[in-house]
Amino acid sequence: MTSADPRDLIRRSDAFTLAEFHDMVDDAETILDLQQAARVDRVRTIRLLKACGRYDEFDRGPVQRFREPQDS
Question: What is residue 71's predicted lDDT score, i.e. its pLDDT?
Fold first, then answer.
């Protein structure tokens, strides 16, 4: 799979340019903050981050899963 050109992922209906997206990335502390600032869904936010080569700038931390104790 080849990496996409970030300009190809920005739609006409988006309220930002590629340069503005980079500014939003600089200001965001989490992917959720970025998603809300850009007003796009999580999948597109992550695709844009990966296409821009900036996905690794966000600390996603370890995923913790909680389980209910199982009765034997």
Answer: 65
